[in-house]
Amino acid sequence: xxxxxxxxxxxxxAGRLALLGIVLEQHPERAxxxxxxxxxxxxxxxxxxxxxxxxxxxLTLAIDEWGVIRVAxxxxxxADEWIERFVQAEWTAPQTVPNFxxxxxxxxxxxxxxxARGDDAAAWAKLGVQLTLWRGEAALGEALAAGERAxxxxxxxxGPTHFQQGVVYRMRHDSAKAEEGDFxxxxxxxxxxxxxxxxxxxxxxxxxxxGPRLAKPYSFYDWLPQARREISERGEVPLPLAVxxxxxxxxxxxxxxxxxxGSAGEMEEAAARAPVPDSxxxxxxxxxxxxxxxxxRTQLIAVPPSVLPGESLRLHFLFQxxxxxxxxxxxxxxxxxxxxxxxxxxxxxxxxxxxxxxxxTSAEERHLEVELQAAAEALPGSITLRGFALYYVxxxxxxxxxxxxxDFYVEVEVMSAAGERLKDPGPPRPGTRD
Amino acid sequence: xxxxxxxxxLADLQxxxxxxxxxxxxxxxxxxLSLPDCADGRPTSLADFRGKRVLLHIFASW
Lengths: 434, 62
What we know:
The complex is a heterodimer.
Chain A: H1 2-7, H2 9-13, E1 18-23, H3 28-37, E2 43-46, E3 59-63, E4 69-72, H4 79-88, E5 89-90, H5 107-117, H6 121-135, H7 140-152, H8 158-173, H9 182-196, H10 201-210, H11 224-233, H12 247-250, H13 266-273, H14 278-281, H15 283-286, E6 296-303, E7 306-307, E8 312-321, E9 326-328, E10 335-338, E11 346-347, E12 351-353, E13 361-362, E14 366-373, E15 381-394, E16 401-414, E17 431-432
Parallel strand pairs in A: 1-2, 7-16
Antiparallel strand pairs in A: 3-4, 6-8, 8-14, 9-13, 9-15, 10-12, 10-15, 11-14, 15-16, 16-17
Chain B: E1 3-4, H1 8-11, E2 35-36, E3 43-44, E4 54-59
Antiparallel strand pairs in B: 2-3
């Protein structure tokens, strides 16, 4: 894409050619940061649902003044040969000139229409999409309900709707209206979509973004630190991100399962900064630590939600403070301890530590990730893995600070080698035991 | 100088590494689609560029 920008810079500056982008990512501000870094000041539109049903990206189209595609997926290497010709040519107007105009959909009319149609899966799915695009956070619950109606309707195209539901659940997870289980539901819907169309590159990438290293094609956002550094060195302020990428999104692919998470070294760095908590060194002592009675909520997300024997998955642990509780950063950082896996199963790491902010107290969500490989001889069914977290948490800004433990378990579903993955997303499989 | 040009005359420029996408072939109108602008959420479509030649990139930064 920067190559296209360079090849057309003079035409853009002369007003003879306009460049326009459509980004298919979940978090569009990351693409905006990329464009800021590459000094590409074009308008950028957001289509998180892949409404054009593209089988892959990137895709480049040369479009004339009537909206007709004149060159599809041209070769950048031959740009000098055709761009000037494309711009100079006198394209024949189509027999019927489209009179389409940019407009916000009439959501009230769309709602009425959908109700009148009853079990029209496409109409319900469209309502979910339009509510998400144009009402955003305020309408995500309604958009999800519309998507569920679409999935429940007979003869619907459930693959695209499952992908759509995954996008909306993940959006709500990232919003102030997040509900417990949203991220896991997103992963389950994406998995259900991919199960129906395993060759859909766009759908596969969305799961790989959060998934294990063995399934990654490349690091998704390793360019980001360099982009921020170079933008700052130019004296500009890097555009802010609504959601910072997590370890899985920075992690590089691996050909073999290793005992390192490989998430840009963040776990190793955190461990080097923080001493090993005494109470985490021995589980017997840790067992005597008082259990948390509601100061921290833990969510576990498994990506993918089920595995074949020998496959790996990535577990995301989210630690969210309830009410006025806050972290005590003057003590040790949050530690995650994973207990022995069954024979043949392997954790990438069994002691993880969170980042510890410099300020004495903080209230951020803490996010740890670890990979787990299923035994090559694992039998179909579910297995339960256990662990616990230890942390220093204070009840309120001026309240009592406590050292607490929270136990959790993870149920991992193993599919038979010839079997199908999870067909329909249900409630999240992993859970916590307070 | 203005060059009269037909669709076929640029069709051979398609990058053969990428399979053609049936709904987005040369000679077809780009679908009617309004999407939010990432900068301000404003509805935007190709109709806002009517009268201009456009190079459209659909991509992801990963």
